[in-house]
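Reviewer 2 asked us to include a model.

Predict the structure of this chain.
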Amino acid sequence: MNIMSFSSKVLFKFFNHAVVASSKPVRVRDAAAAAAPAAVVVQWRAVRRYHNFRKIINQGPAGAAHIRVVDLRSDVMTKLGPSMRQAMMKAVLEDDPMKREEKVHGLEKITADIFQMEAALFVPSGSMGNLIAVMVHCRERGDEMIVGDMSYLHIYGQGSSAQIAGVYTTTVATLPDGTFDLEQLELMIRHNYPRTRLISVENTHNIQGGRVLPLTFLQEIRALADRYGLLVHMDGARVMNAAVAQRVPPSTILQHTHTVMLCLSKGLGAPMGTMLAGPRDFISQAVRYRKALGGGTRQAGILAAAGKLSLLEMVERLEEDHRNAKTFAQALLDCDAPLFAVDMASVETNIVRFHLQEPSFSPSEFCDRMAQIGKGEEAALGQGVQVLMYPYFGNSVRAVWHLGISPEDTQLAIRKMQFVASQYLEEKVRAQ
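Predicted model (structure tokens):
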């Protein structure tokens, strides 16, 4: 047996087992093993207003019959569905060393066609995709880009634009809807040293709760950039959510940008991978930077098969995530215990960001309680339910819907939220 057929058999066994295992209920005796990697309690440590996380320990009464986990921490928690596993398994079985690149090129062509751009490139991660875009657009060390002060690229990129690319970053205030004040943005543009080369926007906007950038705003940004000879890059990790929410093709959004990065591994359900798209000469240079950053991927045909399925079959279902998020947000407002504040107009896609109105009830404590199995919970809910969320930016809580979180899971999360709220208020009354 050669190594290729051996690895194919091993992967087949893994995929087959995973499909079967995913349908099994989680019992108490194996809950710690099955839920511990996913179940976490989050603790904040404020460092320059950013957050870090620690793992949650599965906590619950010893008599719990079984536990249901609803993981709303992030859409990167998406689990591979049967169709995705089958597409990847087929790619493994058909893996021909001479055709791996053809499969990746096929994915890149599909992406370019959907975006109505000249070319596209597969890269391992969104962070690398954004960094490559910065490196191509800002060719000289000391060049400058303008980004939102609450953008993912600025806050979570570990300063890679400066650290690796030698690009200076100027920030403009991010408004609640994810946009900028255009007059303030224009004042930031400089033609001396450093020289402004690039404006980066984020759509949908992560920290602002999945907000969709208005098309008029993007049109105005592009007109401003053209006037000053600048380039526009979109961190479009969730741009397909924006397209679904606005009921337009993604190309309608992207006609106002020069380049875009799209993550395949969030709501679109792929295990990993990101697409970077733009003009042909941009992609030609991006290939070289991908190589320099160690982004070349072996056995990429497997990932390309998953990415192709994501783009062709997983986009329309994002609307279900949006509906589930709105259902949960409305339940927060309708809760008998008036503990929660959420702006329904801001719930545009798959992210719900909300605040607790009780000063003594912190986001961390709320998330702890949602992740634990409380006393009397089984009697009230019919089973133990762990709902995993993160305490988030600005003393809030964030919950994110994705593939694998069904309407039934959403109802379980609502019932758990109502149980935690009533339990907290009962404890507060007893303490008075």
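The domain at 17-80+317-431 is CATH 3.90.1150.10 (Aspartate Aminotransferase, domain 1). Confidence is low (pLDDT under 50) at residues 1-58. We have added this to the supplementary material.
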